[in-house]
UniProtKB/TrEMBL annotation:
GO terms for molecular function: oxidoreductase activity. It comes from the Bacteria. InterPro entries: Nitroreductase (IPR029479), Nitroreductase-like (IPR000415), Nitroreductase/BluB (IPR050627). This is Nitroreductase family protein. It comes from Pannonibacter tanglangensis. PANTHER family: IODOTYROSINE DEIODINASE 1 (PTHR23026:SF90), NADPH NITROREDUCTASE (PTHR23026).
Length: 230
């Protein structure tokens, strides 16, 4: 993507400018809140297929996220192949068994109790798509030499937030899983050493009998998450 000979600053007039009145801004902000508050993390998936084009457009949206030095240090692998999904499930459950057997520590396991999770991950088989998110620790110029990526965790985290919002906007539900370790994903999916798998997102439609933990509906009020200095 990057060519050494073309690294220079060039100013462009702001494209896609939005000019809203205060009232329009308030309406838009409230409307977005009402939309995004209906997003739920779901573990019960339907087998109903999801068109590839929908996944592509959601990932395309994630690719618009801001990043350190605009290096865009992310790569997304969308998986529908049942064999690949099952291999990921088996590997994930192996790690989760050790986690729930005590590897996590009592405090962490107690914190997870109201969520109702276990080492079983059937959703990794059932969800029609798994999206594996890779963080790129370094990149390469067009001549093959390396360059450093900056603010990689922050940049990839923002892109994942955009992706989850895009999936919700498309009418889908998602469940995040953070693999630790899952280095085998690089080999399975043909990703280079410079990339580290940091998240697996199961994506699809909710099952007819899908449930969410009651505690998931408890969100901190605005006064606990906002301080205003005027």
């Amino acid at each position: 993507m990057f060519a050494k000979a073309k690294i220079k600053y060039e100013a462009l007039d702001l494209p896609d400018r939005m000019t809203l009145s205060d009232a329009e801004m308030e309406t838009a902000a409230r409307g977005f809140y009402e939309h995004v508050r209906k997003r739920h993390t779901v573990r019960d998936f339907s087998a109903r297929p999801v068109p590839r084009r929908v996944i592509e457009d959601c990932i395309r949206a994630a690719g618009t996220a801001p990043s350190g030095a605009n290096h865009q240090p992310w790569h997304f692998v969308a998986i529908a192949n049942p064999d690949f999904k099952h291999q990921i499930r088996l590997a994930a459950e192996e790690e989760e068994k050790a986690f729930y057997a005590g590897g996590a520590g009592d405090e962490w396991l107690q914190a997870l109790e109201p969520i109702g999770t276990t080492a079983d991950k059937p959703h990794l088989d059932i969800a029609p798509w798994l999206i594996v998110v890779f963080a790129q620790r370094w990149g390469q110029f067009d001549d093959g030499t390396r360059f450093k990526n900056y603010y990689v965790p922050e940049s990839v985290g923002i892109a994942c937030g955009v992706l989850l919002t895009a999936l919700h906007t498309a009418g889908l539900v998602a469940l995040t899983h953070t693999p630790n370790p899952m280095k085998f994903l690089n080999g399975m999916l043909g990703r280079p050493e410079s990339e580290k798998p940091i998240m697996i997102i199961a994506v699809g439609h909710p099952a007819e009998d899908a449930k969410v933990p009651a505690v998931a509906k408890l969100k901190k009020p605005l006064e606990e998450i906002l301080t205003v200095a005027e």
